[in-house]
Write a structure and sequence with these properties.
The protein is an alpha/beta fold and 310 residues long. It is built from 11 helices and 9 strands.
Length: 310
Amino acid sequence: ADQVAEEVTFPDNSSVPVVYSEVLVDGEEQADTVANQFKQHGVNILICVPDTWAFPQLTILSVLSHFPQDTPVNFTCGNSGPKPGVVFTHAVSGAIAQYGGLLHINVGNWPDTGQHPKMSEKTKEALVDWAYAAITYQGLKGRRVVVFGHDSMGMETALPHIAATRNSLGLEITRLDMKLLADMLTKKAYDEKELSVLRNWLDNHAKDRIELRDDADDQRLNHSLAMYLIVRDIMHDLNAVGGGFMSQLEWGSDLRGTPLPVADIMESLFNSTFDHNGFKPVLPYATEADVQALLTQLFMVYLSGGNPPL
């Protein structure tokens, strides 16, 4: 428990709560006690570290009956004692498979004897990697991404497959029209003082690398920065964990309309760990509203504990 707590974080760099039980589950009564304690603390990922043989029905199956069938379960054990935990682990795996469940097994180097066994570094690394995968799976359920516009490239991977994404990942896709952002830009639906701070911050860091041919370019840059502030607030209001913006072609290139600033700066800031306010969590943001790319970016951020996806 200590090693998982020390190694695993959420994408915003906050600690993952880890709950452990000092009650040894050797029968149905203890199984109910431990399961109820876990549920009271909001546990939705289970790790078991058996060091000897046991009977699945009397122990882990009785615990699992209290949790949804898709709860991630990991058995990490050694294989060196006279009655090693790996035997119990495979018995449990077979029992769970019989009712359609899945058990993730991590057989490593871990003493099966002694009062204070310590797993090897390689065994811990495998467990930590699995923990990040479990957090990604559970942490994105019921969350939301916000996508402006449709796809610009006409590629199937860019389309938001609403039902499939909901059914397989538990993620919702909120679709908004780009007209909303165009109207909010026109109405200046952002904090103009904050826009000034953002522009000054950008100039201080990169002014000599920004090519502005005339006042119109300068104004377009300010509009690009204002887009970041507007969309950031929309994402916050909708409690979104990621997003995407179509940009091309109707937004910025079609001369039948009024071309508006591209979203490149906005995307870069969302995908970064900092902006004019200092450190911030990465918010995966997909170029040209490529929804499948967004999902890939989202998984990468969660699996890596918050690293930028680009």
